[in-house]
Each structure stands twice: as structure tokens, then as C-alpha cells.
Amino acid sequence: xxxxxxxxxxxxxxxxxxxxxxxxxxxxxxxxxxxxxxxxxxxxxxxxxxxxxxxxxxxxxxxxxxxxxxxxxxxxxxxxxxxxxxxxxxxxxxxxxxxxxxxxxxxxxxxxxxxxxxxxxxxxxxxxxxxxxxxxxxxxxxxxxxxxxxxxxxxxxxxxxxxxxxxxxxxxxxxxxxxxxxxxxxxx
Length: 188
Known about the structure:
Elements: E1 15-21, E2 24-30, E3 40-46, H1 50-56, H2 64-75, E4 85-89, E5 97-104, H3 114-130, E6 135-139, H4 150-164, E7 171-176
Parallel strand pairs: 2-7, 3-5, 3-6, 6-7
Antiparallel strand pairs: 1-2, 4-5
Helix pairs in contact: 1-2, 3-4
């Protein structure tokens, strides 16, 4: 299959068409105020769903107490297995679905493994396409705290999209935040 590689030319690069993988257009999208119109969003998650709790509590009306309560609920949550995918309604974030892929285990070292990222991303993309999502945004999984290199994540996405072939999304946006930026999300 063809390889997809991003070449970042500096912080001013906001959108870069990387090419096609099979029938899928791949576009690198870096930390804009608004992401493109998406049907589905794939985001990384940790085994205790703390990332989910923190990002869900970060709305304009959330108080510090709201964030604390969300983190407390997450702390009591059952630990999710690495590689699992949680599909939820994405209306609050401006998309049809959000797929949370459990790729981080903060109890382990390293916190992220390539095979977990590959399996989770493959399951998430497959399920979102099965649900009719043509335009997907993928928050780059793995680079947090040195878990995986950006190149390893792009290689995994390339392999997954090639395997999906006919059942692949029409457009795949690779979403990456700039240093110090908040989490990318539709309608932000």
C-alpha cells in the first residue's frame, strides 16, 4: 500500500493535503479554531476514562467544581481494556459520533503500545464507516508523553485505511494540536 507521511513546515501550516490512500483523501489539519465539518471524531482515551472526563468538563459554563466532579466519577469508573473502543453520541461536539479509543494506560510503562493503537484505530474507523460516516477526524493517537512517534501513528493509519479499502471513509482529517493549544474539536 501507499505510505502517508506528513511534513510539517512550521506552526503556520494549518491544512496540508497529504494525498490519497485507496479511495480516501488524507488531509493534515493542525490546530485551527474550527475543524472541518466531520461525521465522526476519533480521540484517544486512557483506561480510566480520565481524558474523557477532563475534556467533557471543559465547556464554557463548567466551573472548577464541575471538572472535579467529572474527574471523581471517572476515578470510580471500571478500568477499560487497552484497545477497546467506546462509541458515543457526538452532538455536543458537533459530530454524529465520537469514538474513544483506549490507547493509554498511565499505570504501565510505556503508557502506549503500537499494536494497541493499530487495533483500536482499526476497530474505531471500521465501526464509524459502518455507521455511515464519510468524513472522519482522527486526533493523532500515541504521541502523548512519548508513547509513539507521529510517523508510527501515520504508518498505522495508512495500513488501516488500505485494509478498509471499499469500506473506507471519503475524507480523513488528521487532527493535531499545536503546543499549548486546547484539544481540537468540531465547533470549537
